[in-house]
Design goal:
The strands form two sheets. A five-stranded mixed beta sheet has the order 1-4-2-3-5. A five-stranded mixed β-barrel has the order 12-15-14-13-16, surrounded by four helices. The two termini are 48 Å apart. 33% of the residues lie in helices and 19% in strands. Helix 9 (353-367) crosses helix 12 (447-473). It is built from 13 helices and 16 strands. With 494 residues, the chain is α/β, with parallel strands linked by helices. The relative contact order is 0.12. The chain has two domains: 19-198, AMP nucleoside phosphorylase, N-terminal domain (amp nucleosidase, domain 1), CATH 3.30.1730; 204-485, 3-Layer(aba) Sandwich (Rossmann fold), CATH 3.40.50.
Length: 494
Amino acid sequence: MSHSDPDAPIFPPDLPGPEAFTDVRAAVDRLCLLYDGATQHLCAAFARALTGDVPARRVRAFYPEIRLTTTTYAKIDSRLSFGHVSYPGTYGATISRPDLFRVYLEQQIGLLMENHGVPVSIGISDTPMPVHFAVANDAALSVPQEGAAEFTLRDYFDVPDLSTTNDDIVNGTWERGADGLAPLAPFTAQRVDYSLARLTHYTATDPEHFQNYVLFTNYQFYVSEFEGFARRMLADETSGYTAFVSTGNAEITAPDAPLPMPARLPQMPTYHLKRADGSGITLVNIGVGPSNAKTATDHIAVLRPHAWVMVGHCAGLRNSQSLGDFVLAHAYLREDRVLDADLPAWVPIPALAEIQIALQEAVAEETQLDGFDLKRVMRTGTVASVDNRNWELRDQSGPVQRLSQSRAIALDMESATIAANGFRFRVPYGTLLCVSDKPLQGELKLPGMASDFYRSQVSRHLMIGIRAMESLRQMPLSRIHSRKLRSFEETAFL
């Protein structure tokens, strides 16, 4: 079998060099051209290699990139939390899947041009594209496991590189390179590709189906209710919803169309009620636990949603609460621990007024209660999230004391993780929980009690989440993407 010569020249695709653009659509068209040229080059060479036609030299292609250079300290309208850079310099971002992100890219590039009055440069970066991510766009190709192919993969093609697949930018730990280039976007192209692949694996739906408003739940009971709502919306020609997508990318556009049942559910079953402009609602059943909550939000974050909200169940901690009451989180006690290395526990996670108001108004609308009467069914306060589902079985003196000192009114395993990752990734977040048990008062979640509770409350709770999302959809992006989520030196892109 042949081996590539490490001293032989790289075999790259023949693509245009850097060019300045003042037209947004033309700029994104060039990104698409460069990206498609790179992936087609890698896919063609890889397909030949799988049939025994191993290349004589290393095959390499690079991600496209956007660059912006500004030389002025002139202050940009600071009311907007995105769309501009803070200091003179050169900024860049590697780009993956410009077809998927076209609306986002046109919006972000357009704001840069408008705010700074300079063109953007579109060219080829120096970041190699891993063959795994290139062939992900070709259903006929897949990368075999190490040793399964007749050739050594790394001798001929680039593989994922952890040095460019990380959260250094969003975590605020990135360091300026020798070229002085600062980040223009919160994620690198490899980081985006990594998460797109993970999303497909965990949710069994393609990233193209995800909508800009995401509901998380920790129970499968909500799914049938969501499907029922989706079918009602598809029957209403004025609703604006165009399709419903279920596990395995099964898609319906008619209200009475059948949906096949999958042989087995993925780890995080996900469902999408779509609108033509992507402003529909995605429901993700993340299951139980902070690890799942982190995994889901780590990957969905690269899609840059406009809001995500947790609508799960919780333990009520106050005797005055009743099963079925709602809890609107305005603070979080983080004992979930999964994000401590990325976002220390001393970092406060603020409540976002825009999300809080949308959720409270949705509760009022759904329950037909308002003002002081709303307190009958909803409490606002601190939600504690823990990493031990059976915390009640341990010595309760320590945990209960901390819960009391924090003024916590509810406890779950996911909400603080979702809110903290929303803060970390600059995705507007919120939490509305429903009390399903009261362990400190001896009302445990037992089978009979739970079934009655689920039957009466799931539909109402889900509708509140949907109403809140539909309200947020009407809000200008400049308002919902709060400056509270932005730090001293932020990327220009959302």
